[in-house]
Amino acid sequence: MDGDTTPFHSIGDLARLTGLTVKTIRFWSDAGVVQPAARTPAGYRLYDHDAPARLGLVRTLRELGVGLATVRQVLEREVTVAEVAAVHAEALDLQIRTLQLRRAVLRAVAGRGSTPEETELMHKLANLSDQERRRLVGDFIDSTFEGLDVDPEFLATMRNGMPELPEEPTTAQIDAWVELAGLVQDDAFRAAMRRAAVDQIQAREQAGSRPGPEGAKQLAALIQERTTQAREAGIGPGTAEARPVLDDLVARCAEWTGQENGPEFRQWLLDRLEIGHDARFERYWQLIAVINGRPVPDMGPATEWLAAALRAA
After folding, report:
1. pLDDT (tens digit, 9 = 90+) per residue, 166-215?
2. Band of the pLDDT at 4, cuts 50, 70, 90?
3. CB 291, CB 183: distance < 8 Å
């Protein structure tokens, strides 16, 4: 072999040994990455027997996106390959996430038939960081409930329900985030949410002691279960068959609020349901659930059935 009988390789030898072009080797040589060990009397470059291995490493690092300046540091032992790999792996993670977001936005744009303005907005919102998304929703919560003596448990639930787009969001999750961002910046929605909060504060002052959040969850689950059973059985809220279901649920609600069950309480309960039942409130939690990949809650039908039954009674 040529490498066995001569102390140096010509640039043509290196091209044959490595599969690189002469132009590429010359460029890297001029950049100081793989320098010639000597020159012929005519000025042609000659490389030592380590040059093929060095060129192989250079090619690998370049294909991984490492700049020539960093490659030179690696070859001169100023930094290790492991250190360079760790930094570039992190950079690639960010690039991959960005590309995944762009892909999801493009799919959402294609599915929605968005206008140029909507496309720009979707791109901007999708590229917000997790911290920026949390801040946007946090500002909504702060401004909506500012100065109100809101139930700490409810406020904690609101603050814990923050949107967190996954590493590879689906088109549905991108759509949900764009819709949520618009909803929390809607002054009408904020005003409606604040009115409902004021009503809940007044209702809390009128009611007696009540169980903690676990009791509230159990009551909501019971209402959803019983009204779902009624709807699936074809029992309309204004029918005689609905009366036992209504009476039981009203009794449970009265017990939960610490109030006396009677006509006044039924009207009080109906008022709370009508004020608190806004499709946008339910939509808010549905969007959060879609973004975070959780089961989507749907108390709307249960609330509507119970309110209709109270009106008909």
Report:
1. 877 887 888 888 888 888 888 999 998 898 888 777 776 766 555 555 66
2. very low
3. no
Q: Please determine, for residue 249, whether its predicted confidence score (pLDDT) is greater than 80.
A: yes
Look at residue 273 and give its three-state secondary structure. helix
- CB under 8 Å to 151, separation ≥6 — which residues? 200, 201, 204
Dihedral of the alpha carbons of 223, 228, 233, 237, in degrees to the nearest 10: 60
Distance CA 122, CA 119 (A): 5
Q: Can you give the pTM of this predicted structure?
A: 0.54
Contacts of 214 (CB under 8 A, 6+ apart): none
- Positive or negative, the CA dihedral 298, 303, 309, 312 is negative
Distance, in Å, from the CA atom of 302 to the CA atom of 225, rounded to the nearest integer, reads: 8
Give me the torsion for CA of 226, 229, 234, 240, rounded to 10°: -30
Q: What SS3 class is residue 45?
A: strand
Place of tokens 């801040």: 135
Residue type, 266: R
What residues have CB less than 8 Å from 135, skipping those under 6 apart?
none
* Total H helices, total E strands in the chain: 16, 3
Count, residues in the chain: 313
Tokens 């996106």 belong to 65
Residue 180 CB contacts under 8 Å (≥ 6 apart), including other chains: 137, 163, 284, 287, 288, 291
Predicted pLDDT at 6: 57
- As a whole number of angstroms, the distance between CA 116 and CA 128 comes to 19
Spatial separation of the C-alpha atoms in residues 232 and 263, rounded to whole Å: 28
Strand ranges for 105-250 from DSSP E? none
Rounded Cα gap, residues 244 and 262, in angstroms: 15
